[in-house]
Write a structure and sequence with these properties.
single chain, alpha/beta, seven-stranded mixed β-sheet, six-stranded parallel β-sheet, 13 helices, 24% strand, binds MU-OXO-diiron
Length: 404
Amino acid sequence: MTAVEIKKDIYWVGAIDWAVRDFHGYETPRGTTYNNYLILDDEITLVDTVKDDFADVTIKNIKSLTSFDNIKHIVINHIENDHVSSIDRIMNLAPNATIYITEKGKKGLARFFDISRWNIKIVKSGDTLKIGKRTLVFLETPMLHWPDSMVTYIPYDKLLISQDAFGQHLASAARFDDEFITCESVYELDDAVLDYYANILMPFGQLIKAKIAEVQKLGLEIDMIAPDHGVIWRANPGKILQMYMDMANGKAKESVSIIYDTMWHSTEIMTTPIMQGIKDEGLDCKIIKLRAAPMSLAVKEFWKSRGTLFGTPTINNVMFPTVAEILYHLKGLRPKNRIVGAFGSFGWGGGAVKEAYEEFKKMGLEIFEPGLQVNYKPSLEDEKKCYDFGKEFAKKVKEYHQKF
Ligand code: FEO
C-alpha cells in the first residue's frame, strides 16, 4: 500500500502483513500491519521502522515522498524486532540521520546491531526535538510493554504516536478507525483491540492506568492516536483510551468461558450440562476446546469473561498438557479480577483438578471451590452434578461481578 497522509505533511509509510498467522507464538488470524510515520517538516523525521521482511515496502513509501538524504532524524519508540529489524537498512540509506531513543532502547539496540556507526541521542520523558514548526515531545513508557518503550507526542498536530499501545493485529486496507468500521464492523475492531490487550498487555494494567493518568495530568490534547499496529484512531481516539482504562480497571463481561481438553470425551461431555447450568442462571457461556482453537483465542475469551472454568482430564496424575500449558501461559500474563474453577474426568488416581487449583492459587485469582471430578464417563447422576456445578459457579460469578 502506498503512503497515506494522516495529518498535513505527516504520512503513514508502513506495511501490511496480510499473511502472518504466528506472531512469536501468538496466533494472528487477522494478520497485522507495521506502522511507521514520516514527518515532512523543515527537518524531515521518520518515526519507527518496520519488520525487516517489509523493509523494501517502507523504503519505497519513504522514497515516494523524499530522498533518504533528506532524513535528519529517526525516532525509535520501541526496539522489538517487528519495529526495528529494518533499522540497519534504513541507516545504510540515511547514514547521517540521528537516532532518538531511550537509554534502555540504546542498550537493547546494541545487542542486535553494530551501532558504533550511528549517531544516537538518548532521550527521556519531557525531552523535546524541534524539527521546524513542529516540536516532538518524548514520553517514556517503561514496561509498556518493553523496558525501552516510549511514545512521541506532537502538540502541533495533537498527535500521539504510541508504538504498540492502542494497537491491533489487524491487516486491512483501511488505515483509520472510521474507515475500518465502515468496511467491516465496530465489533471486529473492538475484538481486535481486546485480543491484542489480552495477549500482549494484560500483565501491565496498573502501569497502563498510571501512564494514562500521567498523560491526562499533563493535559495533552490528543485528537489522533497512531499506533505501530492496525488502524489509526482518527475518528474516536477517546474510545481507545476509555477501553484501555476499562480493561486496566478489570472490566469484563458478566459471562463464563469454559476452556477444556479431553481424552475420550468424558471431560467434554461434562461441559454441556455445566453450560446449561450457567445458561439457566442467566449468563452467557462460551466453550473452547484447546486442541481445536489457538491458545491466543482461549486467552482472549478468558479475558473477556468474568468467570472461567477449566476442564481437564487426569493423565498420569496431572493435568492434560494443553490445559497445563494455558495455565502456565496465563500465569505469565498475570490476570486479575477474574474468578475460576476446574472440573474433569479421571480414571483411577485423579490429580488434575487439584493441580489446576494449585495453579489458580499461585496466580492469586478468585477461586470457586470445590472443583468437580467424575470417574471415567459421567453418569446421568454426574451430569446433574455438572449442571448444579455450572449453576453454582454462575451465581458466584454474578456475585463477584458486582464488585466491579
Ligand atoms: Fe509490536 Fe512490542 O512490538
